[in-house]
Known about the structure:
The protein is mainly α and 133 residues long. The chain has a domain of 84 residues. It is built from two helices and two strands. A two-stranded antiparallel sheet has the order 1-2. It binds zinc ion. Zinc ion binds next to loops.
Amino acid sequence: MSVLDSITKKVTDTAKAAAKISGSVVEITKLNMSINTEEEKVKKLYMEIGKQLYEDYIDGKPVGEELMRKCIKIDEIITNIAEMKEKILELKNVKACPNCGTILAIDMEYCHKCGKKQEEQPAEAEEVKDVQD
Ligand SMILES: [Zn+2]
């Protein structure tokens, strides 16, 4: 084999190897995508199992003690989220209609969407007294 032949062979081999590698890369990418898709399916099923369990807990059905604790944790988090949402409304100086959830000006007496009379806002005015000086 001449030197030129040898070089040509080497280049061809390298090209083949590169093609093989890029083929592998495509394959790996495809596999990773498949893995992601399958993992998402598992996550979704985990979530559905968890949601079912939480619904059982809400319905008063028997739930394992450890899982019961997690359900109670969910209750706490949901309450926390609701409080934060309320805080946002407060900061925006609006309120949500307790009947339909429509956002209303803080001093609205009736909901303009469902017509529900709004409860008196709990008097937090006392905290403001300090400002009067
Ligand atoms: Zn309403």
